[in-house]
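User: Sequence in, structure out. Go.
Assistant: Echoing your sequence, followed by the structure tokens.
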Amino acid sequence: MGTSKKRKLIYFSVLSLLLSISLDGFGQCDHIIDSDTDTIDGNKMNIQAGDVICLEAGAKPYLLIKNIDPNDNFNQPVTIQNHNGQLIIDTDHVFGISIRHSNNIILSGKGDSDYYYGIHIRRVEPEGGSGVGISQLSSKVEVKGLEIANTGFAGILAKTDPFCKDGNVMATRDQFTQYDIIIHDNYIHDTEGEGMYIGSSKYLQGFPNPCPGQSGTVMPHVNVGVKVYNNRVERSGWDALQVSSAVSDCDIHDNYIYRDSEAGLSAQMSGILIGGGSKCDCYNNKILEGKGDAIEMLGAGNQRIYNNLIVEPGQRFNPGDPNTFKHGIFVGHIFTETNASLYLYNNTIVKPRADGIKFQNEHLKNNKAYNNVILDPGSYEAVGDRAYINLEPQTIELDRQNNFLNTNVYSAGFDSPANNDYDLNLNSPLINSGRAIAEFNYDIENRSRPHGGGWDIGAYECHKPGVGIDETPEMVRNYNVYPNPVEDILSLDIHLKKKSFVILTIRNSLGQLIFETKSIASEMEYFRRINTASWSSGMYTYTIRFNEGQIRGKLIKK
């Protein structure tokens, strides 16, 4: 994603916040729905563009919202929100809230400032039941501020499968597109199936014709404008977040996912699944301790996966079984556009069950993997260095630069891995060791990148006081340490303003001393060539001390 796109998203988020402050919870009610009413029907109510429908606090068995379409005026959506407290739904019905035949709606739990999640769907009991359903040709729907738990199937389900009406097939790809499904700031947990299921997973497969007596296959609709962000999804039975058939303008970011795929169903196991036909950027997500692959990328290509924190994917699935393979990022193929590429930037992957990145889509071309941290992959003992980034087949095109790969989690200099704190301490070898990537300028915490003189490797850019304070000493005219990355011979060329004693030390990523030399720089110039051919691939730090000050830096051995 380019910087301009990120700025648009930030602008949108700020605008959305301002709108929510101005509308949510401040008393505007054009229609009030009491706790005994379970259906809002636009054909029976005089609902106008921009209206606010208030749901009185209390208990309700379910809520059906249908036939609301404010002249497709996107600038004046109809807002449906809680009022005077929290709305609670606990039901044996097949849904908690269902949105049908409606467009341009905001479903909001932000109607009372005392509740962050002002609509709480506590339970949807039947098998196949979902907390919120967006179906039957509904489009342009925003969902925010809901807590959804204990559902028989999905927390949120947003799609319309092809159906038959009066002998005609409806909701097919040539008839209908679902636009602008925006889901943010929700808490979804303890679902039997997916946390969120957006778009059809049968992008290429299609469905049998649903009309009696008619044969053939019909194709499901596509989605445009899917935005899923700032959600918390915990203990989903299947995939925590699945987005399929999202063919353009799709972003999945800043979500927190904990312990996905609890049911252990082999075909439904991931933290984030980007399915067939999708073109989604996936960034700034935290995916911790799931049983499945943290991110499964099955999309169409020309996508970016970056700034994600992935911790121990697959480790809790079939413990002790050496034939269980779950990865940090899995790249597969359903449909891939011609000459499309995949970009893997600045991800931090810690202790995956098998490989850090498993790349099996040979249809993708000119792929890039820059600035990733991959630590202690479980398949290292079996396949060695291939466990970090495993290409199958090995002929897949992947440009790899400035990645930090190590079997020791503590080699990266994280603040506190034991407490899931993977920000960088001041001694981290990742600081200022990354490759500059012009396409974005922020880290997983949305802090500026670069900071302190260079790009850091991994999802976090260190912003601690003291980063970048190592200025070039006054006595140094200029210096160059090259090439970086280095293959066989490393050169140091330093020009001083006066003679000085010089101590050069180089340490590996574990802090072990690899090289040291002490000398006097004669004629105000210091030049040295170091043979690195026998060094192991990875990250190294160097320190050059003078009579007055020092220079510190990092280098990569290919």
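User: And one key feature?
Assistant: Helices lie at 3-23, 380-383.
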